[in-house]
């Protein structure tokens, strides 16, 4: 069980670092491109910033899901990568169909992914609200 907790903590830390690094990169790029947009108030460039931000966040979540999938495949040799990826997606999004289950010894590891996925999806939502809030086109009366 100790190994389970240690590996779950390592994967949680890796996921948070991926997310932090990605959101930091998005922040740097959006600051560079948002400043000139405030003066123009045009919908197309601002919509591009929002769509690029959403696309980048999807890529971040995908990287985190794939990292967990590789870990599941490594921890559970009976799982194919396709099954591990499917399990990771359903666990990360806290959907958890239950048609694929981990062995008893690795269930805490899987539950940790659900907790991390919920946290990181919430973080992404807050980030997207902050980016959208900086765009005046979404303000009332604009």
Describe the structure.
The protein is 78% helix and 0% strand. It is built from four helices and no strands. The radius of gyration is 18 Å and the shape is elongated. The mean pLDDT is 87.
In brief:
The chain has 142 residues and is mainly α.
CATH class: Mainly Alpha
- Report the mean per-residue pLDDT as an integer: 87
Q: Unreliable stretches, pLDDT < 50, 5 or more residues? A: none
Q: Helical proportion?
A: over 70%
Q: How many β strands by DSSP? A: 0
Order of helices and strands: HHHH
Keywords:
4 helices, single chain, mainly alpha, about 140 residues, Helix Hairpins
Write the layout of secondary structure elements.
Blueprint lengths: L1 H39 L2 H33 L5 H12 L14 H27 L9
Helix pairs in contact: 1-2, 1-4, 2-3, 2-4
């Amino acid at each position: 069980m100790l190994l389970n907790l240690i590996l779950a903590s390592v994967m949680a830390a890796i996921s948070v670092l991926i997310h932090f690094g990605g959101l930091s990169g998005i922040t740097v790029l959006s600051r560079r491109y948002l400043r000139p947009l405030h003066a123009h108030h045009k919908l197309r460039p601002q919509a591009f910033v929002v769509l690029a931000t959403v696309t980048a966040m999807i890529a971040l979540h995908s990287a985190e899901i794939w990292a967990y999938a590789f870990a599941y495949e490594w921890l559970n040799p009976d799982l194919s990568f396709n099954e591990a990826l499917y399990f990771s997606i359903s666990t990360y999004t806290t959907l958890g169909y239950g048609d694929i289950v981990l062995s008893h010894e690795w269930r805490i590891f899987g539950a940790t992914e659900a907790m991390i996925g919920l946290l990181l999806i919430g973080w992404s939502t807050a980030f997207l609200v902050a980016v959208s809030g900086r765009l005046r086109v979404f303000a009332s009366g604009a």
